[in-house]
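Long-time lurker, first post. I've been practising inverse folding by hand and with some scripts of my own, and I keep getting stuck on stretches where the C-alpha cells seem ambiguous. Below is the full C-alpha cell string for one chain I'm working on. Before anyone asks, I'm not after the true native sequence, just a reasonable design that respects the backbone. If someone could post their per-position residues I'd love to compare against what I wrote down in my notebook.
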C-alpha cells in the first residue's frame, strides 16, 4: 500500500470536525482491505481498530486526529484541497497516514506482537474535545499506555522532539458580559457605562500572569474580542469581551479561572454594574509520562531518528484527555521546516511518513513486549 498516495488523498479531501464522513469511510476501507478488525463505535465519525497479537500481553493504543481546519489553502501542491475554505493546515492528514501505516505494519507482524494495540482515528480535535467522545464510548477502558504524534514544521525530516512533563498547555475560552445602564453619550451621569467597566477589567486581567502566577510557570491570558455599542452618541447597556487562557500547570490552570472571575465581577461592581462570566473549558495540559518518554527516545534512536527536546507550546491538544486516565507520551515529528501549523501555506514533506509509521508501530510493540 502506497502511504504517500494515501496522504495525498487525505490532503486533497479535507473535512471539518464532526463532518469527517468520507474520511472515516476511507480509513475503514483501507484497514479492512488488509484484514484489520474494526471495533464498533457509537459515533458518526472516527474509527477504532484493533491489532490482536499472537502472544499474551497488555493493551496499548496509538492515536491520531482526522479533522481539517476552516482555512482556504494557498499552496501550489498538485494535491491541494479541492474543498473551498477547508484545509489540512495542522498536519492531521499526515497524522492519520502515519497511524494507518503503523497499523498495517503491526497487522503484518501480528504473530510477533504481545497483547494488542488499539488504533484510534479520532474526530474533532479542532472542535475541540473529540477525544472526550472517544473516551465516553469506553473503548479506552482497558488501555494501559497511549501514544500520539504531531507534525512539526520547525524540524527537518528525520527528527523527533520528545520531552517529559507538560509539553502543551491547558486551554480555556471565556466570554464576559458587562451590564450597565445605557444612556446618551452627552449625559453619562444618567447611566452606568459598561465600556468603562470592560476597559478597566481588560487592564486588570493582565495582572493575573504578572502578579498571581509563579514566574517560572508559563501562562497566558489574552482578550481577543471586544464588542460594545453601535453608534457614536449612545452609551450602550452592555459590553462583551472574549478570550483565552493557557497554562502548563494544573494548579495554575485552576487559579487563572478563579482570579479571572473575581476580577471581572468585582471590577464591574466597582463601577456600579455587573458582569457575567461564561467559561468554556478546553483540554488540560498535555503531560508526558517520564518512563514512556524514555522509551519513546530509545525507540526513536533505534529507528534512526535524531532526538531533540520537544518544543513546549501554549497551544492545546485534546490528547491530554487520554492522559488524564492513561499514562502516555505525545511526540512531535519533524516534517520539514516551513510555514507553521494553521497557516494557509502549511505543508508536510511526505518523506516523513514511512519512517514515522515504522516508529509508531515500534513504540507500541516495544512497550507491549516490555510489559
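-- Answer (accepted) --
I ran through it position by position. Result:
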Amino acid at each position: 500500500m502506497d502511504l504517500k498516495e494515501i496522504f495525498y488523498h487525505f490532503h486533497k479531501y479535507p473535512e471539518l470536525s464532526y463532518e469527517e464522513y468520507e474520511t472515516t469511510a476511507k480509513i475503514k476501507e483501507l484497514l479492512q482491505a488488509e484484514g484489520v478488525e474494526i471495533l464498533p463505535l457509537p459515533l458518526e465519525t472516527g474509527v477504532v481498530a484493533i491489532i490482536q497479537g499472537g502472544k499474551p500481553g497488555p493493551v496499548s493504543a496509538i492515536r491520531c486526529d482526522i479533522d481539517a481546519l476552516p482555512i482556504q489553502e494557498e499552496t501550489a501542491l498538485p494535491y491541494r484541497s479541492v474543498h473551498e475554505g477547508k484545509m489540512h493546515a495542522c498536519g492531521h492528514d499526515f497524522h492519520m497516514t502515519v497511524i494507518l501505516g503503523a497499523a498495517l505494519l503491526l497487522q503484518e507482524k501480528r504473530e510477533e506482537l504481545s497483547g494488542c494495540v488499539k488504533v484510534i482515528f479520532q474526530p474533532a480535535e479542532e472542535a475541540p474535545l473529540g477525544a472526550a467522545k472517544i473516551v465516553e464510548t469506553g473503548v479506552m477502558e482497558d488501555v494501559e499506555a497511549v501514544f500520539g504524534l504531531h507534525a512539526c514544521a520547525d524540524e527537518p525530516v528525520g527528527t523527533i522532539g520528545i520531552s517529559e512533563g507538560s509539553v502543551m498547555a491547558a486551554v480555556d475560552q471565556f466570554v464576559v458580559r458587562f451590564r450597565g445602564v445605557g444612556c446618551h453619550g452627552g449625559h453619562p451621569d444618567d447611566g452606568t457605562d459598561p465600556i468603562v467597566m470592560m476597559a478597566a477589567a481588560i487592564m486588570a486581567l493582565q495582572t493575573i500572569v504578572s502578579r498571581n502566577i509563579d514566574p517560572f510557570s508559563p501562562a497566558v491570558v489574552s482578550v481577543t474580542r471586544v464588542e460594545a455599542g453601535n453608534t457614536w452618541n449612545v452609551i450602550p447597556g452592555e459590553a462583551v469581551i472574549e478570550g483565552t487562557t493557557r497554562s502548563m500547570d494544573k494548579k495554575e490552570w485552576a487559579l487563572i479561572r478563579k482570579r479571572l472571575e473575581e476580577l471581572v465581577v468585582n471590577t464591574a461592581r466597582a463601577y456600579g454594574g455587573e458582569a457575567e462570566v461564561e467559561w468554556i473549558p478546553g483540554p488540560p495540559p498535555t503531560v508526558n509520562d517520564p518512563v514512556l518518554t524514555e522509551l519513546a527516545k530509545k525507540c526513536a534512536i533505534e529507528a534512526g531518528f535524531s532526538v531533540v527536546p520537544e518544543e513546549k507550546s501554549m497551544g492545546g491538544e485534546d490528547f491530554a484527555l487520554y492522559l488524564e486516565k492513561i499514562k502516555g507520551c505525545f511526540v512531535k515529528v519533524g516534517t520539514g521546516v516551513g510555514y507553521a501549523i494553521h497557516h494557509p501555506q502549511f505543508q508536510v514533506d511526505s518523506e516523513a511518513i514511512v519512517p514515522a509509521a515504522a516508529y509508531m508501530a515500534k513504540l507500541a510493540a516495544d512497550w507491549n513486549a516490555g510489559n
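A couple of notes from the structure itself: The chain has nine helices and 16 strands. The radius of gyration is 23 Å. Happy to go over any region you disagree with.
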